[in-house]
């Protein structure tokens, strides 16, 4: 069906089987979501954010097939987003069980309590990313698209000192006059 797809070639029949099973199961969830939208009314249905997650989780299973048929390739970004959304949906389903419900509620409470801290980290990331993308524009990883990821790695302690060893044009002023025109060290 998709002979040029690398995951198809590497995964073989297991990839096909897993994809078919997921697509069939997602039809059940799409039907449930459509039925819920009809029963509650579409305005009320789309007023709840959880419904967006459920709908994308079910439709997202079809995205690899749709992209393969239209573009001839899969898009890993959409596949990764579908996986994350479906894991969030699974946490929502596990909230109703006695064994896992309290743990999921505790996880949600921790995430809600961290909102202020996350906002502070996002503000720090935005500020430092903007500043360092100007100061270190000559280094790879400091353009505006990748600077937030590089700054986040720096926050975790991964600082590469060669980023700050820029070749300066005015090297005599930077050595405070200790090197003369011939390149010899003077005593000052």
Descriptive overview:
The protein has 188 residues and is mostly helical. It folds into two domains: 6-96, no CATH class; 115-162, no CATH class. 67% of the residues lie in helices and 0% in strands. It has ten helices and no strands. It has helices at 6-11, 13-40, 42-45, 49-59, 63-70, 76-94, 98-113, 115-135, 147-155, 171-174. The relative contact order is 0.05. Mean pLDDT is 80; it is low at 170-175.
Largest sheet: none
Helix % is 55-70%
pLDDT < 50 runs, ≥5 residues: 170-175
How far apart are the termini? 77 Å
Number of helices: 10
Shape: elongated
Computed CA radius of gyration, to the nearest angstrom: 26 Å
Describe this protein with a few key phrases.
single chain; 67% helix; 10 helices; 188 residues; mainly alpha
Summarize the structure.
Helix content is 67%, strand content 0%. With 188 residues, the protein is an all-alpha fold. The termini are far apart.
């Amino acid at each position: 069906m998709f002979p040029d797809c690398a995951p198809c070639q590497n995964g073989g029949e297991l990839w096909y089987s897993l994809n078919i099973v997921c697509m069939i199961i997602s039809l059940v969830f799409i039907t449930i979501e459509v039925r819920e939208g009809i029963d509650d009314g579409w305005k009320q249905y789309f007023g709840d954010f959880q419904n967006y997650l459920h709908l994308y989780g079910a439709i997202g299973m079809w995205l690899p097939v749709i992209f393969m048929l239209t573009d001839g390739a899969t898009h890993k970004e959409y596949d990764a987003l579908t996986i994350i959304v479906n894991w969030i949906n699974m946490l929502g389903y596990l909230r109703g069980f006695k064994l896992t419900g309290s743990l999921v509620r505790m996880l949600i409470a921790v995430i809600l309590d961290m909102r202020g801290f996350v906002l502070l980290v996002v503000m720090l990331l935005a500020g430092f990313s903007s500043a360092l993308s100007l100061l270190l524009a000559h280094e790879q990883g400091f353009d505006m698209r990748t600077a937030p990821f590089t700054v986040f790695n720096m926050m975790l302690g991964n600082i590469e000192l060669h980023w700050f060893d820029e070749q300066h044009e005015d090297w005599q002023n930077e050595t405070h006059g200790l090197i003369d025109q011939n390149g010899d060290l003077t005593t000052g």
